[in-house]
Amino acid sequence: MQVFQGARGGLVKAWIDGVAVEDQARQQLDNIAAMPFIHKHVAIMPDVHWGMGATIGSVIPTKGAVIPAAVGVDLGCGMMAVRTTLNARDLPDDLSGLRTAIEERIPHGRTDNGGVNDRGAWGDATDAGNAAFAGLSDELKRIVDKHPKISQAANRAQNHLGTLGTGNHFVEVCLDENDAVWIMLHSGSRGIGNKIGSYFIERAKHEMKRWYINLPDQDLAYLPEGSELFGDYMGAVSWAQRFARTNRELMMTAALEALSVSVPKRFTCDCEAVNCHHNYVAHEHHFGADVLVTRKGAVRITPETLGIIPGSMGAKSFIVRGIAGQAAAEALCSCSHGAGRAMSRAEAKRRFTLEDHARATAGVECRKDADVIDETPAAYKDIDAVMKAQADHVEIVHTLKQVVCVKG
Predict the structure, then answer these.
(1) pLDDT higher for 314 or 84?
(2) Cys-Cys link to 77, which of 142, 188, 374, 408 (CB 3.0-4.6 A)?
(3) Which residues, including other chains, have CB under 8 Å from residue 210's CB and lie 6 or more apart?
(4) 337 is known as an active-site residue
């Protein structure tokens, strides 16, 4: 762990030994850590890199305020993993049919600018989606009634339940160290979460202007606890986080169904599913105080709480839990949410060829086309270096390697 005082006076504790941190990210960290309502220090995970609003890989404890842009717009984005009783030898030699079966059951990608013909949404919501949405719809209506600018995205929310999205979201079939078959997936709150996040970020910026509060970065605009907007935001974020968790659960059911039709052997799931957010805000207790903790690309783990740290399309992933001790306390019971980008998407597309990508994903049934070059493994940090940097408070429970990857 490295401890340093930011240029603006804030305290940062960072698990970055052996991994690079770009100057742009360091500037963001300086600005965030210096905010007057930070509790003790900002904790930085080894997958740290610049992000819109706040540095990815940040754990930000606050008292009396929340920064909507630090939480971001993919509210509740996270991971889910389930281990099955299947073994590698039970899988078909040709995995393309399994990949197709998953793609047929889980809408992914985005077309028609997200409109009515978007392939990444359901044309007609599924029965399972309808049933799940019934438990979410009343509260969403209350949010929209008070903040009608969210209404257009809210109208599409039901058709987004059980869908993957784009970018680095994925569904994978993996093998662990014992060749057990796992399903692992990554997604969030889709269009409705994006709209809620974007809307309140703009409202927070407006509040800063209204109160003549000057900030080093306008994305640090905050909502003070006790204000009406703070309460509205926290309620909407809580709803979006439940939506995201439900979304992952529906996709997991669909992925397991795809596995069952592709593998003749009957199977069950033999361990508790891991379902964890890594873009969210929560009430927690740290260093003697009740605080709000914003995790922007970070996962909460304890000795009793499992988390997921994915690599990239061709790299290992890990099921982890926390190690009790001082390091865990200083890390605010957090670990990285992945390997972390080593370069921008644009730079990856400039630097790598289709041949590079094919070599990096050899042995994985996945897309090999130009549209996923920005997700190629070399665009990310070395996952082994990331794991080593946080080994003082993160224990590896299972090591997974994907054999099938469906990208958004």
Answers:
(1) 84
(2) 188
(3) none
(4) yes
